[in-house]
Specification:
The chain is of the alpha/beta class. The protein folds into three domains: about 130 residues, Rossmann fold (3-Layer(aba) Sandwich); about 240 residues, pyruvate-formate lyase- activating enzyme (Alpha-Beta Horseshoe); about 55 residues, Nucleic acid-binding proteins (OB fold (Dihydrolipoamide Acetyltransferase, E2P), Beta Barrel), CATH 2.40.50.140. Helices cover about 35% and strands about 20% of the residues. The chain is globular and about 60 Å long. The structure holds S-adenosyl-L-homocysteine, iron/sulfur cluster (SF4) and FE3-S4 cluster. FE3-S4 cluster (F3S) binds next to helix 1, helix 3 and helix 6.
Length: about 450
């Protein structure tokens, strides 16, 4: 159903990780047969879904402030004789569904990440005012089985969730509590979804999972990637997020052998201090991580690495923080995310002694980010003069501009025809900044374009 034909307007706001982005798309897919079409503003919408994130305190707070704004819109619609249904989905819904209902009565129902296939029923029940307002069970299997096979994609890149949940229980993290136990989707279901996406023009897949490299279907993630690469039209495969403990030989080898597997790997380490890593329950030391990086680089020398870092974990000393800077200096990440430790309710680390003062966390974060930014700038600058294959995704902000991605996930801007979108063409890189690359179509590409 196209947006114009849709009788009911659906607004979905997404916070948090790519798994939430995928889930939001799937929620829209579930609701389309019920006559809901997506709109890009909440004003006047019939159904508003907030897909929330619980990872840090700030993320959770956003849920409540957004709900305050939505309540006003709901009242405005009611004053005009209409009705707006407000649903809260995602990880805050899972972690504190009852609290949401108590704090914000404007919320009609709460639905956890494994229950999106129940959305039609929850909406119907809301209309019937039967009052079942909370669905937050863990059954990943049911969720995927019950979602429609057909996806309403329009772009040339797509997310595809292959794994959900986490059994690692890092002491700072809520994910094992909000997303449940590790679950791998069956290979056949993933292949079917991927074929459907390829048929709609998707050329690059990003396989998603909280611990995607723990994928336990036939042949592990490496086996899955090899099968996906055989699908006609699928030229590029990425995956995120990986845990160092699950990076097996087969996957490392695949990076050296499988052309479709892009040379970019998000492999969070969190800290460079072994004492902190142990207190975090990461299950690896800094040395183990560095040796792993060496092995990956031996298989694929040009691989771009990306990471996540937490500064100010309880008890982190200046020296321990310095060890994180040292590890960063050794790895030289192409890109990274770094955060101040945020104590999360119900996690073991939140009860530890030695919580680090906010000002110290801020200081450390600034120092770490300076170093990470420097490395990112260097990594991008090193591409100048090279010719990279770019998958063009969309038109750029400036007239005449098209934008795509390099194998290393860098955005690449060129002056060119929109007909390039959906194609992979060689681009000569002429300029680099920290965030992106600029270039021109290489001579041999101009001949065909
Ligand atoms: N499964 C992934 C990602 C989990 S959440 C992994 O294991 O890496 C994404 C990132 O958020 C984490 O890697 C971590 O760096 C950060 N994070 C998680 N909990 C946090 C907390 N309590 N405070 C600050 N950052 C946190
Ligand atoms: Fe959280 Fe650790 Fe699991 Fe990642 S591996 S989701 S950081 S508990
Ligand atoms: Fe946030 Fe949940 Fe993802 S807590 S980071 S939305 S798994």
């Amino acid at each position: 159903m196209s947006d114009q034909q849709a009788k009911k307007r659906l607004y979905i706001k997404t916070y948090g990780c790519q798994m939430n982005v995928y889930d939001s798309e799937r929620m829209a897919d579930v609701l389309a047969p019920l006559g809901y079409g997506l709109t890009d503003t909440p004003e006047g919408a019939d159904l508003v879904v907030l897909n929330t994130c619980h990872i840090r305190e700030k993320a959770t707070e956003k849920t409540y402030s957004e709900l305050g704004r939505l309540k006003a819109l709901k009242l405005a619609k009611a004053a005009e004789g209409g009705a707006m249904t407000i649903a809260v989905a995602g990880c805050v819904a899972q972690a504190e569904g009852a609290e949401i209902m108590r704090r914000q009565p404007a919320v009609d129902f709460v639905v956890g990440p494994q229950s999106y296939h129940q959305l039609p029923e929850l909406i119907a029940r809301t209309y019937r005012a039967l009052g079942q307002r909370l669905a937050a069970e863990f059954a990943a299997e049911e969720k995927f089985d019950a979602l429609p096979v057909d996806r309403a994609v329009t772009g040339v890149t797509a997310f595809l969730t292959v794994q959900e949940g986490c059994d690692k229980f890092c002491t700072f993290c809520v994910v094992p509590y909000t997303r449940g136990a590790e679950y791998s989707r069956p290979v056949e279901a993933i292949l079917a979804e991927a074929r459907g996406l390829a048929a709609k023009g998707v050329r690059e897949l990003t396989l998603l999972g909280q611990n995607v490299n723990a994928y336990a279907g036939a042949g592990g993630l490496a086996g899955l990637a090899r099968q996906l690469a055989k699908i006609s039209g699928i030229d590029r495969i990425r995956y995120t997020t990986s845990h160092p403990r699950d990076m097996d030989e087969a996957l490392i080898a695949a990076h050296g052998e499988l052309d479709a597997l892009m040379p970019f790997l998000h492999l969070p380490v969190q800290s460079g201090s072994d004492r902190v890593l142990k207190a975090m329950n990461r299950g690896h030391t800094s040395d183990h991580y560095l040796r792993l990086v060496e092995r990956i680089r031996a298989a694929r020398p040009d691989i771009a690495l990306s990471g996540d870092f937490i500064v100010g974990f309880p008890g982190e000393t200046d020296r321990e923080f310095e060890q994180t800077l040292e590890l960063v200096g050794q790895v030289r990440y192409a890109q990274a995310f770094s955060f101040k430790y945020s104590p999360r309710p119900g996690t073991p680390a939140s009860a530890l002694a030695g919580q680090v003062p906010e000002s110290v966390k801020e200081d450390r974060l600034a120092r770490l980010q300076d170093l990470l930014n420097e490395h990112q700038t260097d990594f991008n600058a090193a591409q100048a003069g090279r010719t990279l294959p770019v998958l063009f995704e969309k038109i750029g902000r400036r007239p005449g501009q098209v934008v795509g991605r390099s194998p290393y996930l860098q955005p690449v801007h060129i002056e060119g025809s929109p007909s390039l979108i959906g194609t992979i063409a060689p681009v000569e890189i002429t300029q680099a900044t920290r965030g992106s690359l600029t270039g021109r179509l290489a001579q041999d590409a101009m001949a065909v374009a």
